[in-house]
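Entry 14. Structure prediction run on the chain below.
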Amino acid sequence: MHIGIDVHMCRLTQTGLYSYIWNVLQGLQNLEHPHRITLFLYGQPGMEEPESLRRMIDTFSKAEVQYVWDDLPLKSFSSRYGSSASQAPRWVKQVDRKVLFPMWKKMQMPDSRLTLYASRLARRLYQASTSLEIDVFHHPAGLVFPVSDKANVMTLSDLIPRLFPYYCPGSDEWFKESFDKADQMDIILTYSEHTKQDVAKTLEIDEERIRVIPLAAHHQYRPLDNQEQVQAVLMKHGLGERPYIIYVGSVEARKNVSRLVEAYHLLRQEEPSLEHQLVLVGTKLWLHESIFEVIRNLDLESHVKWLGYVPFEDLPALLNGAELFAFPSLYEGFGLPPLEAMSCGTPVICSRASSLPEVVGDAGLMFDPYRVKDIAEAMHRTLTDSQLRLSLREKGLKRSHMFSWDKTARATLAAYEEAWTRFQSRERQGQTRRDSKPERPKIYKHAHGWVVEQLIRQSYNGTDK
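Output returned:
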């Protein structure tokens, strides 16, 4: 069986989706199986890729890489002068920069392209799939590539764009086609039973085609005995002088960080002797402005510290150094940060919303995320009761061992094999999917725009010498 996996989104993020694809690939590489794996990237062969994607590709030596590009290649006049564009005469570079590159970029704009090219990506993918004999195509992040005419597997991490569009404006347009075509998948993967039920109910998908495959914490998340190492990371981020409560995740409205800040303020009022800071780790996303407005209005600027994006390798030390991990999210497809905290032995208090009880179980103190007082009480109980903290630490470590990427990879491989079996059954019954005029997915516009900008940037850099 030949498996194709779309890894385009790994260019754009190093958060949960990147971790999911990376760890599944790592698990597949470690398993003994007869299957061949090809990673699909939309773009022009030879283009420069982000360091994170290059690292991923280099790590998985058993996987092949297939580029799919449905437009004219960007080839400068300068490239004809030796192996480096920098060797070209200055006037040639100027022609490239002032005429060729702007003209090529303009030709890529959707409104300026001929109808003839409307389905080239779909046809090119089918041609590549046919020549490579792709049996199962995995869409882990929406339909960047069209639905294959053989077996298809799609991962739906959550239905946030459909269920909570006001928390992520515009994202439903991105994923509408993926949601609408979910019924064309042979197998759909979700991270939790809660998301499975959302998919079955909201998208009207038969549950027998949905497989729940939980995620796991990276092996770097563990208790750290080297306190000097922990302190070095804390000092790097301006921490260490005061004990702290930590939140890890994007800073956005859906994560309910505003109520966490309000609960922290209430905690300080009710227990003035507590010296704890509240530390927020994560990038700003949709509707984050109101969170920082709450911090200002409550006069907490010196007590709430936002670290922004933190390097992946620093996160275990930050979690180990915290007295408490708080996660107040209103909706999660899984909820990896609480699992990472439990893996470090950090006591966890957590929202009881959506899938989070499946992850945390009885290893964390759960609260109603809509009640500020409930959140404050959970913080107060944990910070003032050393026996409770010890109990949560022990339970968290034990529960974290229930999840592993090896299990995730094995279950994912089983889903690929099941999807292929389903396709073969349909083929025997004459029900195979044969679309002579496949349409290019609408999310393609975003993927195409990213590639165009990357190629232009790469070409300008090549002639800027």
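The longest strand covers residues 36-42.
Filed with the rest of this week's runs.
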